[in-house]
Amino acid sequence: MEPKADFIQRVEEVENFLSQKRGLFALFALLEREDTPERWDVLVAAPWLSTDRGGILTVAEQLTSRLTQDQIVQIARIVPLTPESDFVLFLQGVYKEMSVTGGRVRLGASVLSDIEIRSGYILAANASLNRAERLVAVPA
Predict the structure, then answer these.
(1) What percentage of the chain carries pLDDT values higher than 90?
(2) Collapsing DSSP states into helix, strand and coil, what is residue 78?
(3) How many CA atoms lie within 13 A of 79 on its CB side?
(4) How far apart are CA 70 and CA 65, in angstroms?
(5) In this structure, how many other beta carbons lie within 10 angstroms of the beta carbon of residue 74?
(6) Which pLDDT tens digit goes with each residue over 48-66?
(7) d(CA 52, CA 62)
(8) Where are the domains of the chain?
(9) If you count Cβ atoms within 10 Å of the first and of the last residue's Cβ in the chain, which end, N or C, has fewer?
């Protein structure tokens, strides 16, 4: 397995583990920004995940337990977001448009909300976890 594929697979294992242990993610994505080549931002959003240091530590603990040392240094940062944030909603829309099987979606070079992206992967995107959508779904 090529190094990049192994890295992505291991990060996907983290997403699967945390989804089973804690609950589904509204978004779990890897983005390689143009200004940080060969380093990845890990974007995470879930109703159960705090957007403070605690949320970062929850994800970091699992990443460090599954990634090699060479892979760990490929992580630029962990970015916890709220499920209702515009960026999460945008990436959920991209996932919905591009996903055929419900598996990972690869993103090519693009500009997302004024951020230049070299490449990326959306590993999970569950719009049903957005608070606004859940409130709409509740019978009156």
Answers:
(1) 69
(2) strand
(3) 17
(4) 13
(5) 17
(6) 999 999 999 999 999 999 9
(7) 17
(8) 3-137
(9) C
